[in-house]
Amino acid sequence: MRAVSFIRRMGTRRLAVWLLLAAFALSLLPMLIIAVYDHPSADDFNYGVRTSRAWRDTGSVIKTVSAAAEMVRSYYKGWQGTFSAVFVMSLQPAVFSERLYILVPPLLILGFAASGMFLFHTVFLRVFGAEKHDAAIVTLMILFLSTQFLPSPVQAFYWFNGAFFYTGFHSLAMLAAALAFRPAPERAVSRYVLGGLTVLLSFFIGGGNYVTALTLIIVTGSLAAYRAVLRKGKYFVPALCFAAVCAGLLISAFAPGNAVRQQNLPGMEPLRAVLVSFPYAAGFASNRALHDAPFLLGALCAVPALYRIAAGCSFAFRLPGLATAFFFCVYAATFTPNLYAMSAYGDGRMLNVNYYSLVLFVFFTLFYWCGWIARRAPGQELTRDRYLAAAALFLFALACFTSVYQNRDRMTGVSALRSLVNGGAETYHAEYMARQTLYRDDAAADVEVAPFTVKPYVLFFSDIKADPDDWRNLGVAYFYDKNTVRLVPGGTEGAP
């Protein structure tokens, strides 16, 4: 009875917000703590060779940034055209000090959360005039699902090269989309400055990964067209963002280096890649629906809040079928670039962006259908039982616990906590530092190291091989100025 009385006094929506906020914060806490054991790997070294040497030799930020620009020029001609991404990846924190690499997870996790909050605050509060508790419920549920049940946590938040290339640029795209949606400031100076920065950000995103650039093109282009045709104005900034991201993408796509890289990949014809994107997107979504109970229950938990937001706004919601088709096309477009380039889904970092887009597709589709239903049953609540929402949250929590019981690494926060508690993260860190001692030994020209005895799920991405000519080994050797590095069972030696 005390629990019932407490719920009545506090209010169901406020209680739901506090419960979701606590769950989200607690899930992020071990993800942030484990950052102290995070270390670079794979392409972190390959992209950081020139810049790390510039920093070691000169100690000059300007010279190091200049080396990053030279890296962009070299890769643009010889390997890949994603100029914005190459520039940022060349300046990964370990270039300046490997101790700074612990900043990677907080940067990517908090950046993702902040940009998501800003986008959903803009859409639900500023555009649709939602009540703050309803907007918070939807926002927290989207962010919880996006950070805890994604395909590859290490490639989302812990491995800088792949994580910033995809999750980082996705976060920037959410920021750009929010700024494009947001009403312009009253003051002319603020309006022009903010508009200019949004356009520059869009151009920068165009030089990143093709998945995010294509998605932003569709979103800003559709927003500009909608406002121009139906709203008769306020389309200038979205139109400029559309042009800017298109320009960045074209500069990236026509790089000579892309042809060199594509020789190693089994590509697909453009039209076929577009058409095949739809069954690939449907297959990815159905796999989540059939095997991921927290994903479905989390979305259903948000339905009452979505309904109240939709019922309380002035938007007509006349065409739910067309809206669903549009949302699905935007989601399916996230599969097209990888199908065109490699005829496959892509690695975990690419699947992460597919998953973020799936979450948004489901929530915005539910929102539109809730609005359509509300317009046909005005004045009716979706549910009058204040305890139904609490029951839905309980079922969601139960699904999360069941999912974790079946697979300890299923939830990112739980996996990180597990690696902290069982000592796996600390052991991995100690073994990495033992390697680094050898790498930093100027007297050792050829280094042999033992394999890691533990590989924490959220921290470990890739390792060097026994073959010293493997691209991973070459990256590490060049980064530390060694002749060779190789993996040898039981070996931790440096040969002069």
Strand content: under 5%
Compute the average pLDDT. 87
| Terminus-to-terminus distance | 75 Å
Count up the helices.
23
- Runs in which pLDDT lies below 50 for 5 or more consecutive residues are none
Largest sheet, if any?
Answer: 3 strands, mixed
Question: What order do the SSEs take from the amino end to the carboxyl end, as H and E?
Answer: HHHHHHHHHHHHHHHHHHHHHHEHEE
Number of strands: 3
Radius of gyration: 24 Å
Strand order of the largest sheet: 2-1-3
What is the 3D form? Answer: globular
Helix content: over 70%
- Helix/strand structural class: mainly alpha
What's the SSE blueprint?
Layout: H1 2-10, H2 12-33, H3 43-58, H4 61-78, H5 83-89, H6 104-127, H7 132-148, H8 153-158, H9 160-181, H10 188-206, H11 210-231, H12 236-253, H13 256-262, H14 270-291, H15 293-301, H16 303-312, H17 320-333, H18 336-342, H19 348-376, H20 386-406, H21 412-421, H22 424-439, E1 446-449, H23 471-479, E2 484-487, E3 493-495
Parallel strand pairs: 1-2
Antiparallel strand pairs: 1-3
